[in-house]
Amino acid sequence: MASTKTSLLDLPVELFHAVLVECIRVRIPKRALRLRLVNRLFASEVIRVIHEYHILEDNILRVRQLGSVGAEYLSRRLLRTKLPIAPQWANIRCIATRLAQEDDEAVREERYAAYVQLLCGELARRCDFSMSSICMRAELADRYDERNCGKYFREHDLLTAAAYTNKIAVIEEVINDPDYPGIRVGYEGSFGNPFDMAASRGHHAVLDLLYRTQGEFAGDNNLLAAVVFRRLSLDIEIAKRFLPTRWTKKYLEGNEGLNMLNLERALRTPSVEIFQMVMQVKESTAYPTFTEQGLNNLLGFAARHGWLEMVQYLLSIGAPVDVLSLRGVFLKGHMDIAQLLLDHGAEFTAKEMGYAAEKGRWEMVRWLAAQGVDLNVADPSPLISALLFERADVARELVALGATADAEFGRMAKIKAENDGLDSMVVLAEELSLEFQEGIVEFFRAALSLDGTKSAEAALSLDETKSAESPPSALA
Question: Which UniProt keywords apply (predicted)?
Answer without folding.
Answer: ANK repeat, Repeat
